[in-house]
Each structure stands twice: as C-alpha cells, then as structure tokens.
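Researcher: Batch entry, complex prediction.
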Amino acid sequence: MAVTIKDVAKRANVAPSTVSRVIANSSRISEKTKERVREAMKELGYHPNFNARSLANKSTNTLGIVMPNSAKIAFQNPFFPEVIRGISTKAYQEGYGLYLSTGQTEEEILEEVKQMVYGGRVDGIVLLYSRVNDKVMPFLIEQDFPFVLIGRPYNIDENEVTFVNNDNFKAAKTVTEYLMLLGHERIGFIGGNLDYVVTIDHMKGYEQALTNAHIPLRQDYIVHHEEVKEGGQDAVIELMSIEERPTALIVADDIMTFGVLRMLADMNVHVPKDISIVSFNNVMISELSSPKMTTVDIHIYELGFEATKCLINKIKEPDIGERKVIVPHRLIKRESCK
Amino acid sequence: MAVTIKDVAKRANVAPSTVSRVIANSSRISEKTKERVREAMKELGYHPNFNARSLANKSTNTLGIVMPNSAKIAFQNPFFPEVIRGISTKAYQEGYGLYLSTGQTEEEILEEVKQMVYGGRVDGIVLLYSRVNDKVMPFLIEQDFPFVLIGRPYNIDENEVTFVNNDNFKAAKTVTEYLMLLGHERIGFIGGNLDYVVTIDHMKGYEQALTNAHIPLRQDYIVHHEEVKEGGQDAVIELMSIEERPTALIVADDIMTFGVLRMLADMNVHVPKDISIVSFNNVMISELSSPKMTTVDIHIYELGFEATKCLINKIKEPDIGERKVIVPHRLIKRESCK
DNA sequence: TACACCAATGCAAGCGATTGCATAAATTCA
DNA sequence: TGAATTTATGCAATCGCTTGCATTGGTGTA
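Model: Structure tokens for the complex:
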C-alpha cells in the first residue's frame, strides 16, 4: 500500500488536514511545521493520490483532446502532432495533463466526450476540428463545459464559443490573388473533405478572389477529396484530364501536395514550369519537396498553444466570457510557383 | 451537482450498493431490479464519476504514453502518430483511455512518470523509446509497475521487461546486403541519435553485413544526426565531400530521407543513377518522394497495437511474466536503388 | 412445523484527499 | 491583567463509488 497523507501526518505529529494544507502551501500553517511536514513527506516518499485529490477537489488538472473521427486518417497528417505539441507545451507549463480521445467513429467520440464530461475525467476540452454536422460541440455548449475549438464554429453563434483559428478565407483569397498576379487565370482547387469548415472557408476565399477579378468560376476546376494521400493523386488525374488544363493549383494541404507533385512528375508535367502550386500549412517537411513547395504557414504550433491558453483561462475563470483568437498566417514563397 | 449513485438508488428504491452492483452487472442482483435500476439511471441521466470509481477501485482504466524527451523533435516524425494510432485502437477496444506525457526534458519526464505511478493516475505505461542512459525504465522496474517498451531494453536483462520491437539489427543487415547485391561497396550510413538503441542496432547490422562481405569499415562513411530534418541534409554534405563518395546510402528514417533527397537534388546528384538510397520505417508519405524511396516497412501501427495488447495483459494478470514480441519487417523496393 | 440454506439486497466502512468550523495558544490592546 | 483578536492546528464531514459482511425472506427438506 502506498504511503498516504495519514502516514505523513503521524510521522510529523500533525493532523492530516495540516499535511493537506502544507501541500497546498496554505499561509495558515507556520513555516516551522511546514518544514517538519515536508521532511516527513520526503522521508516516507509521499506522493499525493491523484484520484483522491480529484474527487475531493472536483477537478483533475487534465485537459481532454478530441480529434476528428477520422483520426485514423488525420494522424497521417503532421498537423495533429504539431498542434498537440503546442497544446502539450502550454499544458505542461500550467501543470495540466493531457487525456486523448481514442474513438474512431462519430458516435464513439461523442460517447467518450460524454464520459469525460459527466465522469469528471477532465477539466476542459480542446476540439481539434470543426466539422459541419458535429454533435460534440452542441453537447459541450449545452453542458456549459469549458472547451475551445481549433477552427471556427459553424451553424453556431460565434459569440457562444471560444475558438482559435486562422483566417482561412483570407488566406485562400490571398493565395488565389497571388497566383493571378503571377498571370494565372486557370486556377484549380484541390480541397479537403467538405465536412470540415476549413475546406469551406478555403473555397469561399478562392471563389471570392476569382469573382473579384471577374474570372468565371469553373466547377470542373474544383475537386474535393477526403484522403490526404491518394486524394491528392486522384485530384490531379481529374484536373489534368480536363481539356483546358489549369495552369495553377491550390492544394488544401502540404501532404496532399506531395501526392500532387508525385503524380505530376509521373505525368511529366513540370512544376513550376507547366503548372504552379500553392498549398496550406507549412508542416515541417514541406520544405523538403522537390521543388520546394510554396505554402501558407498557418502556425500550427501557436494554434495549439493559444487554444490551451484560452482553455485554461476559461477553466480558472468560468465567467470570463468567450474569446476569439485569430492566428496570423504567412505565405512562404518557395519554388513551386511561376 | 451531477447525479450520483445515491440519487439513482433513491429513485429505484434500492441501496447505493445495489446500484453499484448493477453497474458492474453482478450476478447477485436479480434481473428485475437490474431493469428497474437501469431505468432510473436512464431517467436521471446518470453517469458514474470517474475519480470516485478510480479511488475505490484503485485502478483508472487509463494507460500512460511516455514519449522521448525530444518530443519536440520526435513529433515531427510520423512514427509517433502512427504508433499512437496503434495504441489507441487497442486501448479503445479494451475500454482504456490514454494519458499523454507532456514533459520536455528528461527530468521533467521522470517526474511525470513518478506522478503517474505514485499518484495512481494510470494503470500501466507504454514507453515509446529505448535510450541508452534512461532512468525511467529502471524506475518502473524497481516499482514493479506494469509497462511495456516499444524498442529493446539496453543494459537491462531482457527477461526483466516486456517489449515489442523490430529486429532492427537484421533489418539493417539485410538492407546492407541488398545494396551489396546491387553491386555497391561504398555504402554510407546516416544514423539517428546514438542515444537510441535502434540506432545502435542499425549500425551493428550495417557493420556486420560489411564485415561478412570482407568490406572494411570506414568511419567517415558513418554519420549520426539528431535532427530528423536538417540532420539528413548535413549528413549528405558530410558524406558527399569525401573524396571517394559512397555510391549508396542507408538512412535511419524516411523523413530524413526527404532531406537527403532534397540536398542531393540541390547538388545535382541523381538518385538512383548516381547514388542509391534505402531507409527505414515506411511512413505513409514515403511513397510520395521523387524518386519513390525504397524503405523497410517496420509496421509501426502493429508495434503500438501489440505493445498495448501486452500491456493490458500484464495489467490484468500481473504474474504472467514478461513477454517479448518481434514485429516482422519487410523491405519495400521502390525506385531509389540501383 | 422447524430448520437449514440460498438468493437478493442493505449496511457501513473504506479509498485518500480537502475544507468549513471549532478550538487552543499566542499576541495585542486598553 | 483580562478581554479581544489573531494565529496555528485539529476534528470530522464530504467527494462518489466499491465491497465484505449482515440481514431478510423465501424455498426445500425432514
């Protein structure tokens, strides 16, 4: 049996409550006894029991991380590790632990979230995605449970939730304008799963830019694919078999771009000579493609870091009201555009 | 205040203990009252409190995942997401949750592990690395705490720990032999951080193969780098400035290979015409390099899955003794060798 | 009918902490 | 010097659930 607070109390000749207060470093205990108690703790090798604390406290010092149901696929993308790294850093700084969702289907995940919330397993939740018909967020709102969203709420009043996001609309618009500036008019768009809000924002930005420039939208230039890897390749086939091939491509994701580049190489289409490419995220390996890809750095790490900051804030001061943080993005020009 | 077991008890006109037994589906309760209690739970929207359960049970149904201290760097590598995916899948199947370590330095991590163990925060631990002078594993052994290692113990009797690993020695040996079979004799080796056991095993295998073939070892053909990304590039510079350039390269890691390919391209060295490359892991995007890389598939997902299986086994039957699982590897021949 | 026995449930003591309130001792002030 | 106040600590209830043992009522058996 592990050593408990009572053992320490006995050893230091005080009551358990005193020991507890020493742990909390309460000012109500004199320095002298504090010292004595601390010594006893050392001698006995005492470590507080986490569950007992949580039970009494009604708080766990743990944050839940909820990943998209397609975690299977999602994890293929360095976006998630990187955002978790940001979360992890801040969480550690503030003394919070991380609890990971493991479910695969939407129902499984909702069930898990319910357990986290009702079971008091975590103090707050970071949602790593915003999808269109999501049930998790409404649940959390209804329960008035602290959470932050990485992404943007959809079909829900923005003032009702705290979220951290990029301005994906603007990013996509800028990128499109950039391509037009380089002289492109036939610009293809390879988007991700349309269930994700980010995809929608990208597309809107793209469309807006074209409309502003009085370039008619062509539906056959717009392709969506769920799978990050094959998706990129399939999309290329689709787009390149159009008679009037696009001369530039906007790709939703760097990893997809690897597939796109790969496929283009197989087709003997040269980048950037024959076709220009821009994508989003700037994950670590993006600068390792050939040619090096031009991409929008969305500062993934910051997304995680900021989100965690907001979340912890919200946990500590529940009445503080919702916040909205936009992490800036930046176009990284490399070699895939001309 | 959330609804507790007492509320349910009152509602169903039974004692709390009965409710508890219904939750555990004890055979000591009649079907009739079980039904009644279940109904009451439904009506009240009851969900058991996780911490209370854990406290009473002395078990949390949670597994700890401990990542290398260089998580900062590590997470850049798709190895970790993928192994976690394997862990996650099995954990979910068995009703376990996942708790993630967040520390960055070795001391921080050791401290965290101590908290997990002493604090009863997790029932078992998956160690995602085996490094040379590791303090975590000795601690876990000393505490007789259930854990499995992904990798291989070093400086510790293999019979004392359960671990899941590839035969990295053999993999490296095979790869080297494969290159020799293709006619190469000047084979360079770009290894990872020498603190990791996998690096040592790779090197040993490489050396053994050369020795068997009576090819003298050249220290200047062996380069080690910590950083997965820049490392690859630095290493190439080192190796390619040797007068007698190697004609083939063994690279520790697919992501590193991206850097290597990138750098080689910059140097106008053609792969595989001028130099052949083999690497390890076969992460998802490896087939998206140009040229597609030849690599050893180490079945990362299975590593995680099997490790979790072993761990849960160990938790449920502590006296079962240590196990050792070797996950097979497979050379995936693509286009980077000639 | 009385007794043994079993099945179904309840009682109450934990699990290891926290915390409001009470108490005792020390200090201040008039 | 005694009352008031402050400071330092202890008592005991509580968090929500589990579980060993006791209890109750019903059934089978002689």
